[in-house]
Specification:
GO biological process, one term: apoptotic DNA fragmentation
Enzyme class: hydrolase
GO molecular function, one term: single-stranded DNA endodeoxyribonuclease activity
Number of domains: 2
Oligomer: single chain
Number of strands: 23
Radius of gyration: 22 Å
Shape: globular
Structural class: alpha+beta
Largest sheet: 9 strands, antiparallel
Pfam families: Endonuclease_NS (PF01223)
Strand content: 35-45%
EC number: 3.1.30.-
Strand order of the largest sheet: 9-10-11-12-15-20-21-23-22
Length: 356
């Protein structure tokens, strides 16, 4: 199958090629080298197809065709692994701030190509928020892609998301007869809920960067697959993209009743990896319009709508082109007045518009 479409001087990667390719694709245009985030490029664009710093091939778009043909490039057996780069920006993140991406040497310079940022509470192993750019969906996640614990998560902590470990932890906190987590949980289970989502990226190398444990929160499966997914898909819809997105989890922790009738704070391992009660997503679309979503992460609460803590979210109507289920089971979601939310609740993200 050909790996390019020809449309009026535009070279376009097709999904078949992208599905199986593992090059990091860099666009060189107007003297600038940057990640290729969309599958179409204009005539005259130079693309660097990178397996690693010692295996870089140059491809150009000429009259609607890639030269040389992408099919001639071969595989990428010694491909790079995504890395974490610790940054220092206490105005943005009072915890540990990491850039996630790839470090390479190209055109006689060293580069770090960032795919997203993570603010991470190292002591509690808690993802606080991530910042990324969303683009329209191109390909699904590669089959069998596994999460990378990096040097941050020991194997004991990494295993905290396993069903067996979660069941044991619920019994430890709530008592042996607890009713919230069966030993073979189905819909009640917790997902490794991505903050920066897989489908915001068009290639396997970019998708791989999202499979970092610092990029996930304990999220009930129906919520992750429900309203949270709806928000992700809405953010990367063509009417919004490219969009700047910040996804985060507040400090409030899920509490459940133990077998003696007392509310207990829920963590996946000892007193780390807290299960967040409230999450949020801020979307700044290409027209500069900001939308703020606030979501409830508790499928066991029967009260609807759930009570918003304090004054964090003066409620406004959600966009008419997103359909969010009004149910705690799917993740009850509010839309908040953006200026109030940014100014009073997450003032560190005031720089969001300008820098990220």
């Amino acid at each position: 199958m050909d790996s390019v479409s020809e449309i009026n001087g535009i070279c376009e990667y097709n999904t078949h090629f992208l599905k199986y390719d593992w090059h990091l694709m860099l666009k060189y245009e107007n003297g600038t080298l940057e990640l290729l985030r969309e599958p179409a490029v204009q005539d005259g664009t130079i693309i660097y197809m990178v397996c690693n710093s010692d295996d870089i091939k140059e491809v150009s778009c000429e009259n609607g065709e890639f030269n040389p043909q992408l099919s001639s490039l071969g595989g990428c057996p010694n491909r790079m692994k995504p890395q974490l780069k610790l940054e220092h920006d206490k105005k943005l993140c009072t915890y540990n701030l990491y850039r996630v991406g790839y470090k390479i040497h190209c055109k006689d310079n060293d580069y770090f190509f960032e795919t997203y940022k993570v603010c991470f509470d190292y002591d509690r192993k808690r993802a606080v928020f991530t910042i990324n750019e969303a683009y329209p969906f191109v390909i699904p996640r590669p089959y069998g892609m596994m999460f990378d614990p990096d040097e941050i998560f020991t194997m004991k902590i990494f295993s905290a998301y396993n069903k067996r470990d979660i069941y044991a932890q619920f019994r430890r906190i709530l008592g042996d007869e607890q009713r919230f987590m069966p030993d073979n949980a189905g819909e009640e289970r917790f997902d490794r809920g991505h903050l920066t989502p897989v489908a915001d990226y068009m290639s396997n190398t970019l998708i791989a960067t999202t499979f970092k444990m610092i990029n996930v929160i304990p999220q009930f499966h129906p919520i992750n697959d429900g309203n949270w997914k709806q928000m992700e898909e809405w953010a990367r819809s063509p009417i919004n993209t490219p969009a700047k997105v910040c996804s985060g989890a507040f400090h409030w922790v899920l509490h459940l009743l133990d077998t003696d009738g007392y509310l207990r704070a829920m963590y996946l391992r000892d007193d780390i990896i807290p299960i967040p009660l409230w999450t949020y997503k801020i979307v700044l679309n290409r027209n500069g319009i900001r939308t703020v979503f606030l979501q409830y992460n508790n499928i066991h609460d029967k009260q609807m709508p759930p009570k918003i803590p304090g004054e964090i979210c003066p409620e406004v109507a959600c966009p008419s082109n997103i359909h969010l289920a009004k149910s705690n089971y799917w993740g009850y979601t509010f839309c908040c007045e953006p200026e109030h939310f940014i100014t009073n609740i997450v003032p560190n993200l005031k720089v969001f518009d300008a820098k990220y």
